[in-house]
Write a structure and sequence with these properties.
Elements lengths: L1 E6 L2 E3 L5 E9 L6 E7 L6 E7 L4 E3 L7 E6 L4 E6 L8 E8 L3 E3 L3 E5 L2
Parallel strand pairs: 2-11
Antiparallel strand pairs: 1-3, 3-8, 4-5, 4-9, 5-6, 7-8, 9-10, 9-11
Length: about 110
């Protein structure tokens, strides 16, 4: 079983920055990718940024140029640097890890508000 532990959420003003981190523990086999997803009440969980084991990245259009994903996927570690935060970035951010199946963290709340 794989466990994902997220940290770094909180309250920040528009234009500010936050850094989210995620560390995996347990039995990890050939991790394909790790990523961050965001969910707001009543809406589906959407991809924010993903990092593949080969280093390829992909971002949602709404965050490209403001957020940067980094880490060591093979070691089960990924971070998300979020700059120039906007009110629309508010939500619960979930870390995901994909090897033979997809695992999810419990989520960390990010609130962007003045």
């Amino acid at each position: 079983q794989v466990q994902l532990e997220e940290s770094g959420g909180g309250l920040v003003q528009p234009g500010g920055s936050l850094r989210l981190s995620c560390t995996a523990s347990g039995s990890i086999f050939r991790v394909a990718l790790m990523g961050w997803y965001r969910q707001t009440p009543g809406k589906q969980r959407n991809m924010v940024a993903i990092l593949a084991t080969g280093g390829d990245t992909n971002y949602a259009d709404s965050v490209r140029g403001r957020f940067t994903i980094s880490g060591d996927v093979d070691k089960g570690m990924v971070s998300l640097q979020m700059n120039s935060l906007e009110v629309e970035d508010t939500g619960t951010y979930y870390c995901a890890l994909n090897d033979v199946k997809t695992y999810w963290g419990k989520g960390t709340l990010v609130t962007v508000s003045s």
